[in-house]
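Lab meeting notes turned into a lecture example. A postdoc, R.K., suggested we walk through two folding results consecutively so the class can see how the record format repeats. The first protein's sequence and structure tokens come next.
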Amino acid sequence: MVNADDVRRTALALPDTTEKLAWSMPTFRVAGKMFVTLPEEETSIAVRCPKLERDELVLAEPDKFWIADHEAGFAWVRVRLKAIDQEELSDILADSWRQAAPPRLLESHPELGVPAGE
């Protein structure tokens, strides 16, 4: 199980990432583009996720992944922090970061891979 401090530390370790308060919650951005939020009582995160993949995740692991009603029309998924460990958190945040990062950062950091679907 991970917590909000783990999310913050892991997100901020990714290249060109900053933290900004928005909608009364911490958000993390790469080159100004949001890739993770820490909503509610910081018991879950919202991350970028292609809709088809998101729907498959929710169906496969509903105790871990879910879709907030107000995010249903967007390519975001929620992740319950109590259901993941540090390794999975790192993978999830890196994947969301790749989806938001500009090409120059993706090229500069090949160790982080390429966005899903490419």
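The second example is placed directly after the first for contrast:
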Amino acid sequence: MTSTPDVALSADDARRIALRAQGFLGAPDRRAGVRGVLRHLGSVQLDTISVLARSHELIPYARLGAVGRGTVEDAYWTDGHAFEYWSHAACILPVEEWPLFAFRRRAYRSRPHWNHQLVDGAYEQVIKQLRAEGPLTATELGGAKNKGEWWDWSDSKIAVERALMYGEVVCTERRGWKRVYDLAERALPGRLLHDDLDDAECLRRLVRQSGEALGVGTRADIADYHRLRSEQFDAVVEDSGLVPVEVEGWSKPAWADPAALASQPRGRHRTTLLSPFDSLIWERARTERIFGFTHRLEAYVPKPKRVYGYFAMPLLSGGRLLGRVDPAREGSTLVARHASLDTAKAVEPMASALVEAAGWVGCTSVRVEKVTPVELRAPLTAAVKTAAKALTA
């Protein structure tokens, strides 16, 4: 499966390559904007949690700075530039990737077992209604669920989600966090509306795209980007255009985007807070390997057992992960409920990141509560005040 690596990278080389590939090293492409970020990453994960903002808003913010939140939503959901589908999880994908997921749509169509039973006639009814009325939410199609728990979907919700998986229906936007469904034949450009690529070609292109987005990665890293199976990766990696590399300290084989190897990663590092669902850090083993930083989303951990907080956001500065903060919003105040700093050198970057994030979401002040270690609480509070004054000077 693997060729002998002819390129050896240091751990720092791999880290910088990964940062540049993900858009955190070098000048941001502001002209391409949010759509450029989406095309470059190839996948932006969606999630229901909203603290500072929802994760799909935090992704371009982390790379571009304080781009307007309305601008972010418009970039995703207007003019047919993107669609939502199952990639790493529920993700926003550039519309050009529609043909690449033909392998997954075919797999869904042949799937013998489902969690929800499809009632006779329900599928045909939602297709008929969408054709007649245009884009609709599940509620507008007849109700998203019955009277039971959240997974107790209505017949129309089951049907439209099945049509989404099959590719006859596409999610064209989120409206008040509700999916808006439309017929794929109406929502997608004709040149892209096909399943012509066989499974091997879909997988080959997705492996290449994942490798380009990551810069360098192991089999698990690259396969996980679009939730491919290891054997799917193995079948196409030699034809993907990625090249085998050896990375200092990595115990498993790795591959890199040849373009990423063509020049030294240089430029300005971004200082920012990262969503836990950011593709730079969403794979825990990779984050530990590249940054020596262990991070776990604790939103689903019982509150007494949380160490860092409900939605702790890692701090990226100087190409390193220097700590994390669990933020909250109280009116016009951004609250740092728990800032955990790995070193005193993280104080000023954390203060800068908090003040910038506060301004982005419309907060006019920042309040620091718990800090670990406790002796850095006073310096962080002072640094936040200094950063806020510098911003308004």
